Amino acid sequence: MDAYPPPLVTWFINGMEVHPSPHYEVLYEDGKSVLLIIEVGPEDVGEYTCRAVSELGEVVSSTTLYVQGRTFFSR
Fold first, then answer.
1. Sheet containing 16-17, strands listed edge to edge, beginning at the edge strand earlier in sequence
2. Which of 21, 33, 48, 73 is such that its CA lies 20 to 30 A from the CA of 59?
3. Phi/psi of residue 14, each to 5°?
4. Rounded Cα distance, 33 and 61, in Å
5. pTM of the prediction?
6. CB-based contact 64:58 (threshold 8 Å)
7. Residue 23 near residue 29, CB atoms below 8 Å
């Protein structure tokens, strides 16, 4: 279900707001906000929080990302 008006969605990593960059993209798919991390590495370990705010209220959800090693593929 889509909210109207749409909420303001903000992503945070370890309490710091995420801004689009060559390493992070914020996408909206099927009414959902998605944080895309490009080339995940050990430096991306931490707590990820998504906060949505509208005139109806606020909701926050968090999870922790762990990264274990790197796998390289060659052709």
1. 16-17, 8-13, 46-54, 57-65
2. 21
3. 50, 40
4. 12
5. 0.82
6. no
7. no
